[in-house]
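Example 4.3 (complexes with small molecules)
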Amino acid sequence: MSVNPQMSLSESTTARFAKEVAKYPADQKQSAVMACLAIVQQEQGFMSAESERQVAEYLGMPAMAVHEVTTFYNMYNQQPCGKFKLNVCTNLPCQLRGGGKALQDLETKLSIKMGQTTADGLFTLQQSECLGACADSPVLLVNDRDMCSFMSTERLVALVDGLRESAGASVSASPTSATPQKEQA
Ligand code: FES
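Answer. The structure with FE2/S2 (inorganic) cluster bound is encoded below.
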């Protein structure tokens, strides 16, 4: 009898994987790797080595190939994150229009450094590569989904305060409600 300390995927997770795999030809199920990883992250909050191994096993691909995907795309969290993940673009075009200052403003407002999570578990601050909205810089992304544009110091403070308030006000708080709307420069 083999000793296997590794855990298996839950039935519900496997069912969700199967739906994604069904979108591709039977001999190309590895094409569902990003969708399966997104499911794992949605359920667990981050990608562990064990999760990567499970996805690899399910899709019949090397664990290293899955790891390459999770480390290439920064929407996959390598460790547990706060309720709100803030990704500030610090690529060159944004740097020329205040991207670095936006990151510093958030470090000051949150009393953490880039890459850290606040002690209350609410905010994780990260820098990111180009978010495809250079003309709107400085920009940041909340939880990989909600783009915030033209983020002056005042707007950053308002964003953090709004997200903090929404987290306290409702367990189902959506960052969208506190996200400043895009406006013209
Ligand atoms: S460089 Fe920041 S969005 Fe493109």
